Amino acid sequence: MLQRAAEIRGQKLSEFVLSGARSLAEDTILDQRLFILSPEDHEKFLKMLDEPFEPSARAIERLNRKPVWED
Fold first, then answer.
1. What is the count of structural domains for the chain?
2. pLDDT tens readout for residues 45-56
3. In terms of residue numbers, what domain contains 30?
C-alpha cells in the first residue's frame, strides 16, 4: 500500500514515508499544549502576559489594508 501511494505521488518509498513522518512530527509539535519552563522563564512569560501589547507599525498596516479579494 505504501509503495503504491508513493508511486502515485511520483516519490520513492523512502521519500514518501519520510514526508509522512515529518508531517506527523510537525502536527505533534504544533498541537503541544504543555510547556515546561524554568522558574526564570516562567516569570518572564507571566510578565509578558501582564504587559500591554503594543503592535508594531507593520502589524497595524497589515491589519488595516484592504483584503486582496475586495479589489
1. 1
2. 999 999 988 899
3. 2-70
Half-sphere exposure of 25 (CA within 13 A, CB side): 6
d(CA 19, CA 13): 10
Q: Which triple of cell numbers denotes residue 67? A: 483584503
**pLDDT tens digits along 6-42:** 999 999 999 999 999 999 999 998 888 888 899 999 9
Q: How far is CA 43 from CA 14, 53, 54, 59, in A?
A: 44, 17, 20, 26
What is d(CA 17, CA 45) in angstroms, rounded to the nearest whole number?
38
Closest CA to 49 of 59, 41, 39, 61: 41
